[in-house]
Design brief:
The radius of gyration is 18 Å and the shape is globular. A hairpin with a 6-residue loop joins β5 (96-104) and β6 (111-117). Helix content is 33%, strand content 30%. It has a single domain (4-47, 74-206), classed as Rossmann fold. It has six helices and 14 strands. The protein has 209 residues and is α/β, with parallel strands linked by helices. Strands 1-11-9-7-4-5-6 form a seven-stranded mixed beta sheet, with helices on both faces. Uracil (URA) binds at residues 133, 135, 193-194, 197, 200-202. Uracil binds at residues 133, 135, 193-194, 197, 200-202.
Length: 209
């Protein structure tokens, strides 16, 4: 699918299988999400631009590579996005963070906004939106609209699992935002859950079911 990258690294696929397993505990699920976020983060940042700066090693001066431009922003879609965020901040500790509070109304499946806080200069930064699940895409489309409404122009979307129906809707709504996912599952069920999926990511992370 145009604009969609599937991160099929064996370690990602192995960890994802354990996360899907309903026998996996809340603690195990949270730990795996953090671990997998490091691997996903490696891929989503693979082509970041570099510049050079002069440093002195103990032996000599050199022109050494360093990331170009302003610090990037991770935008976490609450609650489950925070599971990816924590590992990503281990990878890029200086990154800025945006929090986007959205939940799905269980009847309508529409995304309901309850919180938004982001750096004021989003337009100057790469914004990587993170949320493990892209199902109907109502939440991801809304999250990106909120960020664009506050000035973001350079965005990427990172998730763990996506439904084909949601991916089609998202890439149509935001063709300028590349999507990175560990897997594209079969379909959505009648309640808007990804099948085979892993269940409700927020509930599995926090033990709220
Ligand atoms: C989940 C998930 C996404 C959304 C995906 O969040 O983390 O944000 O559903 O579904 P969609 O593509 O159909 O919009 P949820 O609304 O359950 O909130 P939570 O993380 O607080 O549990
Ligand atoms: N949100 C989830 O957490 N899981 C799904 O399968 C769909 C939406």
């Amino acid at each position: 699918m145009q604009g969609v990258t599937v991160i099929d690294h064996p370690l990602v696929q192995h960890k994802l299988t354990i996360m899907r397993d309903k026998q996996t505990s809340t603690a195990g699920f949270r730990r795996l999400l953090r671990e997998i976020s490091l691997l996903l983060g490696y891929e989503v940042t693979r082509d970041l631009e570099l510049t050079t700066k002069t440093i002195e090693t103990p032996l000599t001066e050199m022109q050494a590579p360093t990331l170009e431009g302003k610090k990037l922003v991770f935008a976490s879609v609450l609650r489950a996005g925070n599971g990816l965020l924590e590992g990503l901040l281990d990878l890029v500790p200086a990154a800025r963070v945006a929090h986007i509070g959205l939940y799905r109304d269980h009847e309508t499946l529409q995304a309901v906004e309850y919180f938004f806080k982001a750096p004021s200069d989003l337009g100057d930064r790469l914004v990587i939106v993170v949320d493990p699940m892209l199902a109907t895409a109502n939440s991801s489309i809304a999250a990106v609209e909120m960020l664009k409404g506050r000035g973001a122009t350079n965005l990427r979307y990172l998730c763990l699992l996506a439904a084909p129906e949601g991916l089609a809707r998202f890439t149509k709504a935001h063709p300028d935002v590349p999507v990175y996912t560990a897997a594209i599952d079969e379909r959505l069920n009648e309640k808007g859950y990804i099948v085979p999926g892993l269940g409700d990511a927020g509930d599995r992370m926090y033990g709220t079911k």
